[in-house]
C-alpha cells in the first residue's frame, strides 16, 4: 500500500495561496491545489514551481514565502516599486536595489544610466533613482535562484529620487 503522503502534490496536503495567503487544499492524486478565491494552481515536481493555471504565472517557495518568477520587465519593476512604497510607509528609504542575476537581460533596457558628470556614479545603472546591483551567483547562494530582489535600506524618507516624487 502506498503511503497517504504520496497522494499529495510536492507541497503537502495544503499550502498558502501566493496571491491571498489563504490556505489552499491539495487535490489528492493530482499535482493541483485549489484556492477558493484564485482557482487552481499546479505544482511542478521537477522545477518546484507553483503555476496559476488561469494566468500562467509561476511562483517559487523560499523560507515559507512565495516569490513570483517574472517573465516580463514590468512585473519585476512593479514589484520593486511596491516594495519601495512599503518601505516609505514604514519610515525607511532604500539606498540600493539588488536584483537577481536571472533578470539582468530582462530589465537591462529599463535601467537609467547615471550622468557622466558625476564621477562617483558614472556608468552605474539606476532604477527609480537608486543604484542597481545584480545579486550573487545562485550556485553560491541558492536563495537567489528564487528571490527576485533585495533592498538596502536606512531610516528616513527618500531624498532627491524620482520615486520620492511619487508620494507628493
Structure description:
The strands form two sheets. Strands 1-2-3-4-5-6-7 form a seven-stranded antiparallel beta sheet, with no helix packed on it. Strands 9-10-11-8-12 form a five-stranded mixed beta sheet, with helices on one face. The protein has three helices and twelve strands; from the N terminus they run βββββββαβαββββα. The protein has helices spanning 73-89, 104-107, 162-165; strands at residues 14-16, 23-27, 32-35, 39-44, 49-52, 58-62, 65-69, 92-99, 112-113, 125-127, 130-134, 149-155. It is elongated and about 55 Å long. 20% of the residues are buried. The protein has 168 residues and is an alpha+beta fold.
Shape: elongated
Percent helix: 10-25%
Question: What structural class is derived from the secondary structure elements?
Answer: alpha+beta
Order of helices and strands: EEEEEEEHEHEEEEH
Count of strand segments: 12
What is the count of DSSP helices, taking H or I runs of 4+ residues? 3
How would you concisely characterize the structure shown here?
The chain contains three helices and twelve strands, in the order βββββββαβαββββα. It is α+β, with helices and mostly antiparallel strands.
Draw up the topology in text.
Elements: E1 14-16, E2 23-27, E3 32-35, E4 39-44, E5 49-52, E6 58-62, E7 65-69, H1 73-89, E8 92-99, H2 104-107, E9 112-113, E10 125-127, E11 130-134, E12 149-155, H3 162-165
Parallel strand pairs: 8-11
Antiparallel strand pairs: 1-2, 2-3, 3-4, 4-5, 5-6, 6-7, 8-12, 9-10, 10-11
Amino acid at each position: 500500500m502506498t503511503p497517504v503522503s504520496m497522494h499529495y502534490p510536492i507541497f503537502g496536503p495544503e499550502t498558502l495561496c501566493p496571491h491571498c495567503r489563504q490556505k489552499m487544499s491539495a487535490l489528492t492524486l493530482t499535482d493541483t491545489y485549489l484556492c477558493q478565491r484564485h482557482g487552481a494552481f499546479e505544482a511542478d515536481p521537477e522545477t518546484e514551481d507553483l503555476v496559476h493555471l488561469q494566468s500562467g504565472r509561476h511562483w517559487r517557495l523560499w523560507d515559507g514565502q512565495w516569490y513570483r518568477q517574472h517573465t516580463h520587465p514590468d512585473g519585476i519593476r512593479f514589484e520593486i516599486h511596491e516594495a519601495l512604497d512599503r518601505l516609505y510607509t514604514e519610515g525607511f528609504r532604500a539606498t540600493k536595489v539588488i536584483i537577481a542575476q536571472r533578470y539582468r537581460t530582462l530589465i537591462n533596457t529599463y535601467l537609467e544610466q547615471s550622468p557622466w558628470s558625476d564621477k562617483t556614479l558614472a556608468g552605474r545603472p539606476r532604477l527609480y533613482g537608486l543604484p542597481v546591483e545584480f545579486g550573487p551567483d545562485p550556485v553560491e547562494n541558492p536563495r537567489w535562484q528564487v528571490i527576485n530582489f533585495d533592498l538596502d535600506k536606512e531610516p528616513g524618507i527618500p531624498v532627491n529620487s524620482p520615486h520620492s516624487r511619487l508620494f507628493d
